[in-house]
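I hope you will forgive my troubling you with a question about protein structure. Could you please explain, in whatever detail you think fit, how the structure tokens follow from the sequence? Thank you for your consideration; the sequence and its tokens are set out here.
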Amino acid sequence: MPKFNPEQPDITINAATRREVIEAITKTLDDYVFPIVAKEVQTNIRTRWQNGEYNSITSAIKFAQTLTDNIQAISKDKHLRVFYSHQPFPPTNEQGDIKEREKFQQSLAWENFGFHKVERLAGNIGYLDIRAFMPQKQAGETAIAAINFLSNTRALIIDLRQNGGGSPDMVALISTYLFDDKLVHLNDLHWREKDASGKYRDRIEQHWTLPYVPGERYLNKDVYILTSKDTFSAAEEFANNLQQLKRATIIGEITKGGANPGLFQPFNKHFGMFIPTGRAVNPITNTNWEGKGIQPDVKVSAEQAFKTAHLAAMKRVLVKTTDLKFVDELKKAIETVQKELAQQGNK
């Protein structure tokens, strides 16, 4: 899903642009994963248009936001939204010519393929800040390097507080390092797709851990996942998978609540729409987190989540540590983080 930049310049739109976008929306909604809801949204948008509710809107930003608000008021789907971009939309992963694909690759590399920070914290605790689950084809080598760097730490904190989602194949790659070589069923995606005859059919896509990953797997060590109200989509899937499999402790806030994957559909250079064409189904719960979010195991503010996890991780490592040198280091680090967390709570 493209990122919306609230500080981008606006443009003035006319009646022809409004008509083009509304017609494109109603057509694109035919592919929505819930067809009954799609018909309700289509009827509502057409009625508003015919009643002239959009006629006075000349701001592109306001138009996209108004349409999104109208659509989500009925669908309750946080993935289903209209986007405006002042810069022309770039091609998606496999679209465009060679130069466009190179530009796409460069844009992902500029973000370091979603890996914002990798660090060894006090007490030999690993820390991995992932801002997006980018496609494994482009981001795989960076992911592998980041995880292997942390292989000697005694516990791992994965920070998803600013992660808006991304690709399920990257979720599977990172998850694989947290389990042994016995394949683990992570999640299913139920897709609504159009066949060659134009009829819609359902297809189930299963996601499992991989049979092989380079380097050492991160086994028999505690894993903590940090969440916030902005943790969304594939980031929620990652947290939910590991929570249901009892492989990680979730610390932070209830997540945003988006479990319906799909694709971005550009309408023109400046307007497009993300259309969910599937829904996640966890193989353990047979449901998902749409509209509810992931409930953390330890509920604290997003601001306090990091130090809360760091403290919990060190305390667990201390119990298992016998070398006096390391015990002393852990006790000092625990005391420091306890004081910092107390100061945070007093603000």
